[in-house]
TrEMBL record:
Initiates the restart of stalled replication forks, which reloads the replicative helicase on sites other than the origin of replication. Recognizes and binds to abandoned replication forks and remodels them to uncover a helicase loading site. Promotes assembly of the primosome at these replication forks. Residues 542-696 form the Helicase C-terminal domain. Component of the replication restart primosome. It comes from the Bacteria. It comes from Salinibacillus aidingensis. Keywords: ATP-binding, DNA replication, DNA-binding, Helicase, Hydrolase, Isomerase, Metal-binding, Nucleotide-binding, Primosome, Zinc. Zn(2+) 1 binds at residues 507, 510, 547, 550. The gene is priA. Its cofactor is Zn(2+). This is Replication restart protein PriA. Residues 279-445 form the Helicase ATP-binding domain.
Length: 802
């Protein structure tokens, strides 16, 4: 007897283990590990993943697998192992960890269709009878007719037919109805059989005989002056098929990418690439940290390392932050590797994402460029994994399973014995510290190409501006420089960093912000209670009326929207053309790219935007970058705020003077002498690293300590507090001496969607049982979680402290 161990799609702690099912004879030879099945589970039928096939089991009364959904495994052995690893490391359900690796479409409800790819005569007799002149049959029909599974599988293996999925999605994207003939031969027959009285029907058939391509139903109706019901009658006769398709075009599809050739490397580049190639030649795993300023030629190193993998018959994954997946970036990979490249980003529809994924699965491409989830590309012969801008927050998934793409990359790199390259101009402290310790191999590119220098940065003290009577958002030096650029017809990028606004208070007279004495982070302003609270520990004070440093009453919370800044900017410079880019103006699909193109075509002088403009943009005519409030990032209640500020300022400075025209940067700040602002303006990464490491050590933060953030939420305020208190108590009892359990404290955003949120933070050096202990604690609340709407989430190594 053959038995399958299955992880079932029921996300619950009690069910988070494998269940055994008997494999019915019809699937006996074809079912493989990594395939999805439908199985009976209690009164329901659910989906599950087969993770093992074996011959015996302890279970007495075995149920039987109902249906097998796949003809080839959707998960490889490696990814099955990875699933278990993710589940253990992030305390998430096995099923969630497996599903996160697959395209959405394989999770959604869908209809399966079998499409004929060859001439009918090539099929086995059973299938010839099944298709009976049609090009497509639904699986419902296949089931009804009891067609043996193996017959279909053979036809698919021989390339005679393929499975297509039609998603019944709840997506709100705009869809249009298309019409197409089902089959040319039938159409001709249909034409003969249609009486001349049915003029309209005949006209439609005639039209399709001449134009067999799909056409928008709307167009067809207007073209032939006919009605939907006439078309419908042809549909019921099986001559025409209607289907819905999203109105969306693959942004890269119709573009011709100019082919590029590998550039002769500079001495620095050659030195950096050598050890990468060596590990590849020796088929070894190693993590490289490629630290190079923007424009130092990192991408060329990626490209040539990938080429090396391809030459060995291997594959490559490149992760870039979602926001950098601009055509500019994609072009560099498509330009070098052409149709060998699949691109995965969130702008694709579910169907298109699935298509890209399938190209990988079918080995039609060898390179994947994509955002975070592309790390799960089902390659089986990986030769290199690259993570560009490794410091980006978006590599951490902020929903379960809370994995970091870097950890997944290293898991896969070890599995495939291949190198992982982490690249950045401003690596995370964690990575740089590991590189310094020799855990990662540090590679440095210190020079920009053509030895261009980084643009000059001027820091403007906004307190002085206030004292000089300038109450506007634009300092005099910035105004002057903007005016110069407008006269010279050069362009300007203005960054208004909105994150963290209105959560902290600042004295506009002296720049003081109020910090927690224990945690070195800004206190969060809670408007309702008029109090300032630390959300790491439990420290809190009433909101002061005057500045504790200078006594000024200009102490208030911070915050201006981009729209207000735009108005004020337009008032100051009535002649300037302004493009505003923020979540509001980029909500519509493609608007992001459209606005950038307008700016590139010089249809505006100033691009004003939130952090989405900080990265990857490359405009030759931009000679001035202004940062309106460097402080807003500095005071988000997060121990990484200095690091984030340093990264952002470095990134945004890199936007100016990338070509012939020299660039200049103006940074406005109320705390101009803060080390992160000062050192970023001088491009001093190492000194920043050294200083920040000292702070981290003093306040017991990563990379010296590990963190876990436990968040508890519930509609009832008192209940949320009470559960958090109990959890803190249990953690105290279970933990090692040197571990600190902090809290309970309200989360920085204490109420979201009518749920109260409380948290506790664990700082630990060595806590071997933490995962298990945490699991035990959550198990104690299993009933409340299932029935009382309680939520407990644990984020190990959080990147987002909000
Ligand atoms: P980074 O990825 O570090 O920002 P890039 O790889 O984009 O840097 O390189 C910056 C510019 O220098 C690009 O226009 C690139 O084409 C060019 N470049 C890179 N390497 C070389 C080289 N070896 N010779 C000439 N130009 C190069
Ligand atoms: Zn003050
Ligand atoms: Zn504190």
């Amino acid at each position: 007897m053959k038995i399958a161990s299955v992880i079932v799609d029921v996300p619950s702690m009690a069910i988070d283990h494998v269940f055994d099912y008997r494999i019915p004879d019809r699937y006996k030879d074809s079912l493989e590990e990594g395939m999805r099945v439908i199985i009976p589970f209690g009164p329901r039928k659910v989906m599950g993943f087969v993770i093992e096939i074996k011959t015996n089991t302890e279970v007495k009364e075995l149920k039987e697998i109902d249906e097998v959904l796949d003809y080839t495994p959707v998960l490889t052995q490696e990814l099955l192992q990875l699933g278990t690893w993710i589940a253990n490391r992030t305390l998430s359900f096995q099923i969630t960890s497996l599903q996160v690796m697959l395209p959405q479409i394989l999770k959604a409800k869908y209809k399966k269709e079998l499409w004929l790819l060859a001439e009918e005569e090539e099929l086995s007799e059973t299938l010839q009878i099944l298709f009976a002149g049609r090009v497509m049959v639904t699986f419902e029909e296949i089931e009804e007719r009891n067609i043996p599974y193996i017959k279909i599988r053979t036809a698919i293996k021989d390339g005679l037919a393929e499975v297509r999925y039609v998603v019944k999605s709840k997506e709100t994207r705009k869809k249009m109805t298309w019409a197409e003939p089902v089959d040319a031969f039938q159409l001709e027959e249909g034409f003969m059989e249609t009486s001349n009285q049915a003029k309209k029907q005949k006209a439609i058939i005639g039209f399709f005989l001449e134009n067999p391509e799909p056409i928008l139903l709307k167009q067809l109706l207007t073209k032939l002056h006919t009605t939907r019901s006439t078309v419908q009658s042809l549909v019921s006769r099986g001559l025409i098929r209607l289907y819905e398709k999203e109105v969306y075009r693959d942004p890269y599809e119709n573009r011709n990418f100019e082919r590029t050739e590998p550039l002769p490397l500079t001495e620095e580049q050659a030195k950096a690439i050598k050890p990468i190639h060596q590990t590849m030649d020796h088929h070894e795993h190693e993590v490289f940290l490629l630290h190079g300023v923007t424009g130092s030629g990192k991408t060329e190193i990626y490209l040539q390392s990938i080429q090396n993998a391809l030459d060995k018959g291997q594959e490559a994954i490149v992760l870039v932050p979602e926001i950098s997946l601009t055509p500019q970036m994609v072009q560099r990979f498509k330009g070098r590797f052409g149709s060998d490249v699949a691109v995965m980003h969130s702008g694709l529809s579910a169907g298109e994402k699935f298509d890209e994924w399938r190209k990988v699965q079918r080995k039609e491409v060898r390179v994947v460029v994509g955002a975070r989830s592309a790390i799960f590309a089902p390659f089986e012969n990986l030769g290199i994994i690259i993570i560009d801008e490794e410091h980006e927050n978006s590599y951490k998934q902020d929903d379960t399973p809370r994995y970091h793409a870097r950890d997944i990359a290293i898991f896969r790199g070890e599995y495939h014995h291949c190198p992982v390259i982490l690249g950045s101009a401003t690596p995370t402290l964690e990575s740089f510290a590991r590189a310094k310790k020799g855990v990662y191999h540090l590679l440095t590119l210190s020079k920009r190409m053509n030895n261009q220098s980084m643009p000059e940065v001027e820091i403007v003290d906004m307190r002085d501006e206030l004292h000089q009577g300038n109450r506007s958002m634009f300092s005099f030096p910035l105004q002057e420089r903007i005016r110069e650029r407008l006269e010279r017809k050069e362009q300007i990028v203005l960054l208004l960093n909105r994150r963290g606004y209105s959560t902290f208070v600042i004295c506009r007279d002296c720049g003081t912000t109020i910090q927690c004495p224990h945690c070195d982070i800004s206190l969060t302003y809670h408007r309702k209670q008029e109090r300032l609270k630390c959300h790491y520990c439990s420290y809190e004070i009433p909101m002061p009326q005057v500045c504790p440093e200078c006594g000024s009453d200009s102490i208030r919370y911070f915050g201006t929207g981009t729209q207000k800044v735009e108005e004020s900017l337009q008032q100051t410079f009535p002649e300037a053309g302004i493009i505003r880019m923020d979540v509001d103006t980029t909500r519509r699909k493609g608007s992001h790219e459209k606005l950038l193109n307008q700016f590139r075509e010089r249809k505006a002088d100033i691009l004003l935007g939130t952090q989405m403009i900080a990265k990857g943009l490359d405009f030759s005519n931009v000679t001035l970058v202004g940062v309106l409030a460097a402080d807003s990032m500095l005071h988000i209640p997060d121990f990484r705020s200095a690091e984030k500020t340093f990264q952002l300022l470095t990134q945004v400075s890199g936007r100016a003077g990338r070509h012939e025209l020299p660039g200049e940067v103006v940074v406005q700040s109320y705390t101009p002498d803060h080390y992160s602002i000062e050192l970023a303006s001088q491009y001093q990464f190492e000194p920043f690293f050294q200083y920040e490491m000292k702070m981290r050590k003093r306040f017991k933060y990563p990379p010296y300590y590990f963190l876990a953030l436990v968040t508890i939420s519930h509609p009832n305020h008192a209940y949320a507090v009470q559960v958090t208190q109990k959890i803190v108590k249990s953690l105290h009892e279970m933990s090692m001496n040197r571990t600190q359990i902090m809290g309970p404290t309200p989360s920085p955003i204490t109420r979201i969607k009518n749920r109260y949120r409380y948290q506790c933070m664990i700082k630990y050096k060595n806590e071997p049982n933490l995962y298990e202990n945490m699991k035990k604690i959550i198990q104690q609340y299993e009933k409340e979680i299932q029935t009382k709407d309680l939520q407990i989430s644990v984020d190990f190594q959080p990147t987002q402290m909000m």
